[in-house]
Amino acid sequence: MIERPRRLRQSSVMRSLVRETHLRADALILPMFVRDIPEPVAINAMPGVVQHSFASLVHAAQEAKALGVGGVMLFGVPADRDAMGSEACDADGILARALRETRAAVGPDYIICADVCLDEFTEHGHCGVLTADGRVDNDATLAHYADMAVVCAQAGANMVGLSGMMDGQVGVVRNALDDAGYDDVVILAYSAKYASAFYGPFREAVQSRLDGDRRTYQQDPANRRESMREVRLDLEQGADIVMVKPALPYLDIVADTRASVDVPVAAYVVSGEYSMIEAAAANGWINRRAAILEALTSVKRAGADIICTYWATEVAKWLKEQQ
Ligand code: PBG
To answer: Is the torsion defined by CA of 153, 155, 159, 161 positive or negative?
Structure first.
């Protein structure tokens, strides 16, 4: 026998020597939910994840930073919602306040990404404002995203995550940020975002009231080529980082995206992907730590430079222990 692939698998050191993919804490982003509440509240559908109070949010951001996690991503859960999602653009709203407090606690450079989307803030739960006959109004929504992004930048976000899947959102937000003097604020474009059942637990996390679905703006899970079009359009409009979401059911899209662009590629391991592994582990059906590391490694291997994951801080601890 000339070739014996097993030779390179014979010991832990040998396997380390030839390992092709490595997880790194500084390429993870920790998404967090914040609400104006005295104490954090558990999210039933996401065991181990909470809706943060301001104090626990700040503490968790400091902990993530101390462990070398690359950054945090904030989602606001407002007390009141309306048709326009007005609180999203309010400098005293939940998200802006949380951004200010977090920025004050982690220093000037740490990555704080704000989710720029209306769904947490609208009473109907859609990612944009509606027309008189109840359709999501793409162009009217863009102005809200522009305002929201500027409010978030003013409050301390140095990155904005454009997750709404409105056509033209990247260009409009880029112009608004630049006009307001925030040309350094990075745009993380959710370029290839699918209408996914795996966002289920997130609905509880942000208490979204959506009836129906998002299929008129998020992508059809059956489509692959279409993602390349979305990615191309976002880059033409000035996206700094392009993201694929969800991650694990869309590793082909992560790989395609990596092959087609020269900017960093991110992937978001979403709430349902998190909860599936947690639920199986809680039942003793899989080894939790091994499953988490395998899942995240597969996302890297497919081509993601950056991974958004609710496990970011815990994984950073594990990676530190391994050293
Ligand atoms: C939209 C947004 C969603 C998620 C992140 N940003 C919900 C959606 O598009 O339906 C889902 C994240 C997750 O499921 O973990 N603001």
So the answer is: negative
